[in-house]
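Students often ask why we bother encoding 3D structure as a string. The short answer is that it lets us treat folding as translation between two languages. Here is a chain of 317 residues written in the first language.
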Amino acid sequence: MLHGLVEGAGAARERSSETVSIDSQIVPLEPATGHRPVENALARIRTSLPQMSKIATRVAEYVLAHPRDVVGMSITELADAVDASEGSVINFCRGIGLSGFQQLKLSLAQEIVQPVQFIHEDLDRDDATGTVCRKVFHSGIQALSDTLSVLDPAALAQAVETIRAARRVEIYGIGSSAPIAEDTHYRMLRIGLDARVVIDSHVQAISASRCTSDVAVLTISHSGATNETVASTRLAREAGAKTIVITNFGRSPIQAYADTVLFTMARETRFRTEAMASRIAQLCVIDALIAALALADYDRSTDALRQTFDVLSIKRF
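And here it is in the second language, the structure alphabet:
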């Protein structure tokens, strides 16, 4: 009885929203509650799938196989279809960054009505050089588009405030994340921040253990599961530092030790790992972070940029 009342109330709210028609079904695009559809809901599911529990995997696989059907289902119908509880369906939705089942339906409806152009093509052994160029560039474009859809502006603003309040910034990255960490260090120095980069795992551990409450630590880890960077981030947080992590969308161990998480999203192909594709997205997230930091302290940043430009001018002919 109570379930029926809740379903009825939800239906009433839906009818007050803007709607679209899918296979003669009226589907809301923007509910009165303000839970707007998100872009790339299906991409979020595919990216998160390897880290999901068995029950969440069943829900995910059903949604990926039948997105159009799910739009017209109630939460009870979907739960019955995958032999799971309604709570498990809600947990699945929240696990991919959505508020609940209603927002999932809205997002799927939007994706069906206005499908995202899928430009991320896999390479083939017979591809000509021009085709290889096009596919590789398109994968970078796709990574940027997908990352924009999962990057939380509130989290970016929180990262800005954390760094501004810190006396010093420590930047950690290992492997393919090391060049991104070094570039971040260079960019922070250019706008006048006291920053240092550590890309050696042993030095990271020492540095992290010596952090204090007035230090901000920025860790870059695509997988979020590299033992060394997870350990360093944990040590830094235990020492009192505020921790910021840039990592690929989905659950990962490093998030347990992050005060702020900035997500990227990249897809893997046969000859290019998602970690490689994600570097473009990581650089863009860093670009946005540096720009926001510079704007937050505009006068200081412009003075620092002018001074560092003058210093670097002696290096040029």
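Translate back mentally: The first helix runs from residue 2 to 15. Keep this in mind for the problem set.
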